[in-house]
Write a structure and sequence with these properties.
The chain is of the alpha+beta class and 107 residues long. It has one domain: Rossmann fold (3-Layer(aba) Sandwich), CATH 3.40.50.300. Helix content is 37%, strand content 19%. It contains four helices and four strands, in the order αααβαβββ. The strands form two sheets. It has a two-stranded parallel ribbon with strand order 1-2. Helix 3 packs parallel to helix 4. Keywords: Membrane, Transmembrane, Transmembrane helix, Transport.
Length: 107
Amino acid sequence: RVGLRGVLARCGSLSEERRWTEELSLGEQQRVGFARILVHRPRYVLLDEATSACDTAIEAELYACVYSTCSAWVSVGHRSSLAPFHKLQLKLRPDLTSELICLGGSD
């Protein structure tokens, strides 16, 4: 579900100890992180730029996995393409003020 078939074909098992940062691209590493969410099924998850190296089609698939697996999530990101996957957006400004915006996404 997270697009790792090519990685598995190239690397074999992902469960062995290796220098994964040297073998996998950043986008592949991010998809492995989402695969871990699917396997461990946490109730809550914190995501920090979790899809920054993925295209928007893969990003949508990855957030669909989170939506179907977790009760709630908080993510940090700078891409406007993330908005549909969230109900609220908290904007933090350099002057230490903030604004909470209702987005109406992911019910």
